[in-house]
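Backbone Fold Data
Goal — fold tokens
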Amino acid sequence: MNYRWVAEIRAENRFKNLVVLNSYPVGQDGKNYFFEVILVDPTRPEIKADKDINWVCDIKGKGRVVRGLTGAGKKSRGLAAKGTRRMRHE
């Protein structure tokens, strides 16, 4: 579990009415890593009307961070680069 995924989980736990879309690194110092987490409110009419993002309004959109469906979760589970990390048997 990488730091970015931990930041997404903490953001979702803190803001229970929002859904995490993704995150990206902002910076780091000698001790801490900083990430910006993109959160969406699925109850807003603007989100419900938008065809590209209204999938978060479904019940399946909730809890996608803990299931590892965001970018950080997929990378941590080894799904970021499919087919490029195959082991060779020589």
